[in-house]
C-alpha cells in the first residue's frame, strides 16, 4: 500500500478498512484532540461501521482520492469512529445531525471546533458537485474558508447549538410524576401499530421494512394480557402474520439461513444484504415465542434456521459471537469490484444448470430446476424491479422469495405435497454448495458485549421453548466467554468489545473500551434468561452484581432513569438517554423488566421502585407516542401486573421436576420468573430469598408454587394444575 495512517494500530475491522487511505486519520482520543487545539484546527469526524454500504461508497469516492485527502489533511484533524465500538460518540453527534438536517444515517460526516462542539454535518456526500447536491470537496473548502474568515462567529454558534441540544435531549421526571396508566399506554400503542400495519404483507411501514422485534414482542404481551378480547386476537394475528411473511421473503436467506438487515420494498423481497448479530439474537427469541404461543412447527423451523446460521458463520471458536457479515462481495474470484448481494443472488440459468434432474411423478419434462424456480419466484430476466436496484447491481439476478404455498407448488406440477419438501431441500443443498465456491462477504469479527447478550438470550429462549439442550449449552459457552473476555473482575465492570486475533486468540485494544448502559442491560437480560434455561445459580449471582454496578455507573438520581454512558468522560459533550426502541430496544426500556426480575430473585424492593421511576421519566412520551417505545410500553404492563414467581421445589435431576419445568417453558407468560428450589439452604437463592425455606415438596414429589410479592399459592404437584395456574 502507498499510504498507511494511525488506524493500522487499531483492532476494529472498520477502522482497519481505512488504514491505507491517503487521509491522515486518527482514532477518537486525546492525541487527535491535542493536535486540533495545538494547531487551532477544526476536526472532521467520520462515523460508520464495517458493513455499511454507503460508508464503502464514500471511502471509494472520497477517502481514497489523493487530492481530497490533501485538502482534508491540510485543513482538518480527521477522526474515524466505528459506531459499534463507540455508540456514545455516535449518538451525541447523530443527535446534532438529525436536529439540524432533519435526517441521519451513516456514514455520518460532522465538523467540530477544536473543543469538539459540532457546527456543521450531514451523512454521505458525493465527491463533486451535482445538480441536486453539493460535493464533499466543495464542503471541505467552504468550511475551511469560514474558519479562517469568521472564527469567532463560528465558535459562538457552536456554543448556542450545544445549549439547544442540551435542552431538547433532556429526559427527566417532572415534579412528582408517577408511572403512566398501563391500560391507556397499551391501548394507544396497539392503536398506533394497528394504524401503520400492512394488512397484506405484515410489518409496520410500506418501505423500507425492518424486522423490529420490539413491535412483535409488544403484540405478544398485549395478547397474553387480553387473550379473550378482539383486540388481543388482532394483536396476535398482526405479529404472527408479520413473522410468516418475513420468513417467506427475500429478507430471509433461504440458502444460507439467517436474516438480512431490512427489506427495501413492501414485500420483504429485496433486502439490504448485510446480516447483523443483534437481528439474529432478537429474531431467534421472537420466533421461539411465536412457536410457544401458536404451536406451529413453521416457527420452530425458523428458529433452528437462524441458530444454524449463527453457529456456523458468526461463532468464534472460543465461544463469542461476531458482529456482522457485509452486504457487498466479489461476484467471482477474478472480479475487481464488489457488488451488493453478489453472494446471495442467482440467475435462472445458474439454477437450471445446478438442478437439471427430471422429477419423477411430475408432469412430463419437469426438472428439479423448474419446481425450485416456480416456488421461489425465479424469472429468466431476473425478479428484482429496477426501482429496487438503483445501481443496476442486480440486473438479471433473482432474490429467492417463497411465492406459493407447498400445496400450490405441488399442484402446479402434479406432485404430492410431502415429496415437494424433499425436492426443495435437495435444491437448497445444491445451491448452498455452489454458493460456498463464491468469494464470501467481509466478516466483522469484533465481539460486542451487548450484542453477545442479545444472542445468548436467543439461544437460551430457543433452548427452553424447543427443549433443545444444545442451544442452552451454546448460550452457556458464550456467557463463559463474556465472563472471561468482556469483564474486568478487578473493577467489576463490563468491557464493550474484544476482537478475533491470530490462531483463535482473543485480543483487546490497547486502551480497552468499558461497557455502556446497553452492554449491562443486554448482558443482565441474557443471564436471567440463561438461569431460567440452565438453572445454574452462578449466572443469577453475576446478573445481580452487574445490576448493582449498572446503578452505580449510569443512574440519574435527579431526573431518574439511566444515562447511556458513564460520567467523567470529558470528550463527551452530552450524557444522553435514548428514547427510541428501534432495531434494538432502548436500554432503559429493557432495564425496566431486568429490574423487576432482579427484585424477584433478590428481594431488593428498591429495584421495583427504580423500574417505576424509569417509567415516570418517560411518562409523557409513553402516553403520546408509545409506538416509539413499544418495549417500554410492554414493560409498563408487566410493572402493573406484578411479576409471578414460579417456584419449583424438586430435585433438578428428577423426572417429575423436569416435567414441571417443561410445563413452565411451554407457556408464554410475559410476567413470570422461574426459580428452582433444590433444597440446598446454603445456595445463593436461599440466601437471597429466606421465604424459600418454608416451601416444601408435597409427598416427596416435585411441587410448584405461584408466588407474588413473596406470598405463595397452595402447592400443586401435577403439570396440568400448574398450566391452569399459569394461563388463568
From TrEMBL:
- Which sequence ranges form a coiled-coil region, renumbered to this chain? none
Q: Which GO terms describe its biological process?
A: carbohydrate metabolic process
Q: Which residues form the Spermatogenesis-associated protein 20-like TRX domain?
A: 4-165
Q: Which organism is it from?
A: Jacana jacana (Wattled jacana)
Name the domain of life this protein comes from.
Eukaryota
Protein name per Swiss-Prot or TrEMBL: SPT20 protein
> What Pfam families does the annotation carry?
Thioredox_DsbH
Amino acid at each position: 500500500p502507498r499510504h498507511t495512517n494511525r488506524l493500522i494500530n487499531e483492532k476494529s475491522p472498520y477502522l482497519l478498512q481505512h488504514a491505507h487511505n491517503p487521509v491522515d486519520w486518527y482514532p477518537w482520543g486525546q492525541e487527535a484532540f491535542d493536535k486540533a487545539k495545538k494547531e487551532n484546527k477544526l476536526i472532521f469526524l467520520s462515523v460508520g461501521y464495517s458493513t455499511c454500504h454507503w460508508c464503502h461508497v464514500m471511502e471509494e469516492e472520497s477517502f481514497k482520492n489523493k487530492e481530497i485527502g490533501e485538502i482534508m489533511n491540510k485543513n482538518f484533524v480527521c477522526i474515524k469512529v466505528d459506531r459499534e465500538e463507540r455508540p456514545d460518540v455516535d449518538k451525541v453527534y447523530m443527535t446534532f445531525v438529525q436536529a439540524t438536517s432533519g435526517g441521519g444515517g451513516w456514514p455520518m460526516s460532522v465538523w467540530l471546533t477544536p473543543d469538539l462542539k459540532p457546527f456543521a454535518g450531514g451523512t454521505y456526500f458525493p465527491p463533486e458537485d451535482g445538480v441536486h447536491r453539493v460535493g464533499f470537496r466543495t464542503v471541505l473548502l467552504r468550511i475551511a474558508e469560514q474558519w479562517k474568515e469568521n472564527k469567532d462567529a463560528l465558535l459562538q454558534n457552536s456554543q448556542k447549538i450545544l445549549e439547544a441540544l442540551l435542552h431538547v435531549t433532556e429526559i427527566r421526571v417532572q415534579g412528582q410524576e408517577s408511572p403512566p396508566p398501563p391500560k391507556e399506554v397499551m391501548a394507544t400503542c396497539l392503536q398506533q401499530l394497528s394504524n401503520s400495519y400492512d394488512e397484506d404483507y405484515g410489518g409496520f411501514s410500506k418501505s423500507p421494512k425492518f424486522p423490529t422485534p420490539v413491535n412483535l414482542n409488544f403484540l405478544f404481551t398485549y395478547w397474553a394480557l387480553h387473550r379473550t378480547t378482539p383486540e388481543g386476537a388482532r394483536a396476535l394475528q398482526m405479529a404472527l402474520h408479520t413473522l410468516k411473511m418475513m420468513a417467506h421473503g427475500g429478507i430471509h436467506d433461504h440458502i444460507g439461513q439467517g436474516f438480512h438487515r431490512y427489506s427495501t420494498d413492501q414485500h420483504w423481497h429485496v433486502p439490504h444484504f448485510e446480516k447483523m448479530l443483534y437481528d439474529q439474537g432478537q429474531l431467534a427469541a421472537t420466533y421461539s415465542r411465536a412457536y410457544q404461543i401458536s404451536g406451529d412447527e413453521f416457527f420452530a423451523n425458523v428458529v433452528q434456521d437462524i441458530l444454524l446460521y449463527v453457529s456456523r458463520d458468526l461463532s468464534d471458536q472460543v465461544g463469542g459471537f461476531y458482529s456482522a457479515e457485509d452486504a457487498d462481495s466479489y461476484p467471482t474470484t477474478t472480479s475487481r469490484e464488489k457488488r451488493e448481494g453478489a453472494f446471495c443472488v442467482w440467475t435462472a440459468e445458474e439454477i437450471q444448470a445446478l438442478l437439471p434432474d427430471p422429477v419423477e411423478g411430475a408432469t412430463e419434462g419437469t426438472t428439479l430446476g423448474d419446481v425450485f424456480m416456480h416456488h421461489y419466484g425465479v424469472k429468466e430476466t431476473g425478479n428484482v424491479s429496477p426501482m429496487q436496484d438503483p445501481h443496476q447491481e442486480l440486473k438479471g439476478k433473482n432474490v429467492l422469495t417463497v411465492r406459493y404455498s407447498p400445496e400450490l407448488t405441488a399442484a402446479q406440477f402434479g406432485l404430492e405435497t410431502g415429496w415437494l419438501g424433499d425436492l426443495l431441500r435437495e435444491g437448497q443443498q445444491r445451491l448452498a454448495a455452489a454458493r460456498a465456491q463464491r468469494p464470501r462477504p467481509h466478516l466483522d469479527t469484533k465481539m460486542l458485549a451487548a450484542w453477545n447478550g442479545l444472542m445468548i438470550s436467543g439461544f437460551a429462549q430457543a433452548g427452553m421453548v424447543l427443549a433443545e439442550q444444545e442451544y442452552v449449552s451454546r448460550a452457556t459457552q458464550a456467557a463463559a466467554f463474556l465472563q472471561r473476555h468482556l469483564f474486568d473482575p478487578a473493577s467489576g465492570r463490563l468491557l464493550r468489545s474484544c476482537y478475533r486475533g491470530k490462531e483463535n486468540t482473543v485480543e483487546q485494544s490497547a486502551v480497552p473500551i468499558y461497557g455502556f448502559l446497553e452492554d449491562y442491560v443486554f448482558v443482565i437480560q441474557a443471564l436471567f434468561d440463561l438461569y431460567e434455561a440452565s438453572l445454574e445459580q452462578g449466572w443469577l449471582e453475576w446478573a445481580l452484581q452487574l445490576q448493582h454496578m449498572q446503578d452505580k455507573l449510569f443512574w440519574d438520581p435527579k431526573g431518574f432513569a439511566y444515562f447511556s454512558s458513564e460520567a467523567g468522560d470529558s470528550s463527551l459533550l452530552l450524557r444522553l438517554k435514548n428514547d427510541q426502541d428501534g432495531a434494538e430496544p432502548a436500554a432503559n426500556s429493557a432495564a425496566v423488566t431486568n429490574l423487576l426480575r432482579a427484585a424477584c430473585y433478590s428481594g431488593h424492593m428498591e429495584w421495583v421502585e427504580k423500574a417505576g421511576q424509569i417509567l415516570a421519566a418517560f411518562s409523557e412520551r409513553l402516553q403520546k407516542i408509545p409506538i416509539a417505545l413499544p418495549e417500554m410500553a410492554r414493560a409498563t404492563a408487566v410493572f402493573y401486573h406484578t411479576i409471578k414467581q414460579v417456584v419449583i421445589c424438586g430435585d433438578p435431576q428428577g423426572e417429575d421436576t423436569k416435567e414441571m419445568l417443561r410445563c413452565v417453558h411451554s407457556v408464554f407468560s410475559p410476567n413470570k420468573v422461574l426459580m428452582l428450589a433444590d433444597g440446598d439452604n446454603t445456595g445463593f437463592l436461599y440466601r437471597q430469598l429466606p421465604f424459600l425455606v418454608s416451601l416444601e415438596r408435597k409427598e416427596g414429589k416435585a411441587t410448584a408454587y405461584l408466588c407474588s410479592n413473596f406470598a405463595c399459592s397452595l402447592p400443586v404437584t401435577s403439570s396440568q394444575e400448574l398450566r391452569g395456574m399459569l394461563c388463568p
